[in-house]
Design goal:
Length: 463
């Protein structure tokens, strides 16, 4: 096994035991980037020399007994919405040409303090306003979409071109590309991970979280990221915690909610079969399955767009009026549409969110975790705009991908996607686990237990 193939947990163990040098690991991943990047386009920029210097410093520290923890010397990538002092934050947009960040974002600073080694910045759908990330190709099939908007981060992790990465999630932008590329993606509880220094799409829906190869890896990164920051007005004051899924797979006594409605409506049969099989495995591990009714489903799409579009429009108001031609057409049209929405529309969306949160809280009193598909279908072909379901319903691809992930953004509950198999074409399928606010430890426990029922994750062929 080459170093770039190691999970974060395995790499951290090898570095701590001095079986592997951070220099060897970083060089291996950089070599992998050279091989995969021309085919996949995951990165906006690769900071190879910076990474090599940081790896050398990490190796020196570890050799002299100054080991900072499991992220020390481990190479990672940041979605290009996340500020790193002195580097461009392009948001994959011509609007940001010439931009340089004045200082590190909170999450970049925390990863740096933990000793993680920055490899570079990964592509996003322009300003995170989309679900496909067209610049980047799926790690399992270059003719398919990567998913978005954190497509570059998910593809880099899936291909071995980063040991872990950060993404952002406003309507599914961590979980969608993670599911489509066969890796783990965690959208934390709203406010658990600070967003200071992260370009906003929609302030009341935005989250930052890890994309990793394993659930245990996600727990290690979340431990480094979580904690209050007064510079983010939504940041929770909950004390910092050590997130650890544990090594037990016994789920006896845990109640798994299986949706009767919504999450299995208009879903590819192979996706449904894989997710229901995975739910059956959770039951075999001792969990009790409880059928639940998802509340207020008819309002999900209207609430998501009713919140996101006006907030995005407000953020981009100045540049949209001065340099509209610099935006890609799909994003410009959505931003211009925001000006047609009234204050009343926005207030009604806020009211709907308040009611939805209350209804979800009541539902989550009955179960500990909800298990459902992460996305309704595997990665579609690049350029495909719609999907036609067996009942004749025609749905936009982006609408389909956001449909099952948006409820967790609206309500702010944590959501974890884990790989549960592949379809007949070899494309990954993901299962989504949703829990109570600050219920990350339970999600990680369930995700880890399921992970142990499957073979060790393999990297995408990236051919």
């Amino acid at each position: 096994m080459q170093p770039y193939e190691l999970s974060l947990t395995a790499a951290a163990d090898a570095i701590r035991a001095r079986r592997l040098s951070p220099v060897e690991l970083v060089d291996s991943v950089l070599d992998r980037i050279e091989k995969t990047e021309p085919r996949l386009g995951a990165y906006v920029t690769v900071t190879a020399e910076h990474a090599r210097r940081a790896a050398t410093e990490a190796a020196h520290d570890v050799a002299h007994g100054r080991h900072r923890g499991p992220l020390h010397g481990v190479p990672m990538a940041l979605k290009d919405l996340i500020d790193v002092g002195g580097m461009a934050t392009t948001a994959s947009s011509r609007v940001r040409a010439g931009h340089r960040a004045a200082a590190d974002s909170t999450v970049a600073a925390r990863l740096s303090a933990a000793g993680a080694v920055l490899l570079g910045k990964t592509h996003t759908h322009e300003f995170a306003f989309g679900l496909t990330t067209p610049q980047t190709r799926n790690a399992w099939d270059r003719g398919r979409v990567a998913g978005g908007s954190s497509g570059g981060s998910a593809v880099a992790v899936a291909a071995g071109a980063a040991t872990f990465a950060l993404g952002t999630d406003t309507g599914g932008s961590i979980r969608v590309p993670a599911a489509l590329n066969g890796v783990v993606g965690l959208k934390p509880t709203y406010g658990l991970v600070p967003r200071h220094g992260v370009t906003s799409l929609s302030w009341s829906l935005d989250h930052v979280g890890p994309i990793t190869r394993t659930v245990e890896d996600a727990a290690l990164v979340l431990t480094a990221l979580a904690g209050h920051d007064p510079r983010d007005p939504a940041s929770l004051s909950a004390p910092a915690a050590h997130y650890q899924p544990g090594d037990a797979t016994d789920l006896t006594g845990l109640r798994i909610g299986v949706p009767r409605n919504y999450y299995f409506d208009r879903v590819d049969p192979q996706v449904e079969a894989a997710v229901r099989h995975a739910i059956g495995q959770l039951e075999a591990l001792g969990a009790r399955l409880v059928e639940v009714d998802i509340p207020m489903t008819r309002y999900v799409q209207a609430t998501q767009w009713g919140l996101m579009v006006p907030e995005a429009g407000a953020y981009h108001e100045g540049s949209l009026r001065t340099v509209p031609e610099l935006y890609q057409d799909d994003v410009r049209i959505l931003l211009e549409a925001s000006e047609l929405m009234s204050a009343g529309d926005y207030v009604r969306a806020q009211r709907s969110r308040t009611l939805m949160r209350a209804e979800w809280a009541r539902m989550l009193e009955e179960v500990d975790v909800i298990a459902a598909p992460s996305v309704p279908m595997p990665a579609v072909r690049a350029g495909q705009e719609t999907v036609t379901w067996p009942d004749g319903t025609v749905e936009g691809v982006s609408d389909a991908y956001v449909r099952l992930s948006a409820p967790a953004n609206i309500t702010g509950v944590p959501a974890l996607t884990v790989p549960v198999g592949h379809d007949e074409a070899g494309l990954p399928i993901g299962m989504q686990l949703l829990g109570r606010p600050l219920g990350e430890p339970v999600l990680l426990r369930v995700g880890y237990a399921h992970e142990q029922t499957r073979p060790a994750p393999a990297l995408a062929p990236a051919a």
